[in-house]
Amino acid sequence: TQLLEQSPQFLSIQEGENLTVYCNSSSVFSSLQWYRQEPGEGPVLLVTVVTGGEVKKLKRLTFQFGDARKDSSLHITAAQPGDTGLYLCAGVKTTDSWGKLQFGAGTQVVVTP
Amino acid sequence: EPEVTQTPSHQVTQMGQEVILRCVPISNHLYFYWYRQILGQKVEFLVSFYNNEISEKSEIFDDQFSVERPDGSNFTLKIRSTKLEDSAMYFCASRGRDRGYEQYFGPGTRLTVT
Questions:
Q1: Which of B20, B21, B42, B84 could share a disulfide with B77, CB 3.0–4.6 Å?
Q2: What's the pLDDT score for residue A69?
């Protein structure tokens, strides 16, 4: 069983459409981070959320942390081909004091022109 | 903008050989990590390091693995006797003292064990 379940695993949409990626768990997290990873490269940090119910925006990307701090979502408005990539959620459980990140398996997003 | 760097980008080694993977974390960061990602799988935690000692390690991080911060800037991961199953991307990450445990990752070292 995965600690952090991401859905869907794969998402293919047309340019201009909206999309949402989900990250769910039965565990409570002190913080949750979203990364984007290109093939053969390291994860690049997009955002960190720490407060239940928190919403953060990064241009066309909106990130939300669930009220109970067990889940998060990433919403992209008017997707562009440049948004194509692997999106990873990763969290630090409240029981982990050294910042060990637990990763989801990722959502591969493909945006076609 | 400060970034985490890693060398080499690709290392090929024979089974049973020792390898050292090197990382230079962001300069004012205090917590350091190694993760690995086997091809097609998710990123897995290996070890965390703070104040010149291991703070936490995973089951993967057995006696064949060690970490060191030899000179106050570099952070190394040594695998003493590599196995085929050690083939993976190895990522170094670092963070400062912040509430969100924000970690910044390096570009990775691809380790291939033949």
A1: B21
A2: 97
Q: Distance from A40 to chain B by nearest Cα, in Å?
A: 8
Q: Are A105 and A6 in contact (CB under 8 A)?
A: yes
Residue A81 has phi, psi (to 5 degrees) of -55, -30
For tokens 């859905």, the residue is A7
A44, A93 Cβ separation under 8 angstroms: no
Contact A76, A61 (CB under 8 A): yes
Answer yes or no: is pLDDT of B35 > 80: yes
Contact across the interface for B43 and A44, Cβ inside 8 Å: no
What whole-number distance in Å separates Cα of residue B98 and Cα of residue A99?
10
Distance CA B20, CA B9 (A): 12
Distant-in-sequence, close-in-space partners of B17: CB < 8 Å, separation ≥ 6: B81, B82
Share of chain B above pLDDT 70, in %: 99
pLDDT-based confidence at residue B59 (cuts at 50, 70, 90): very high
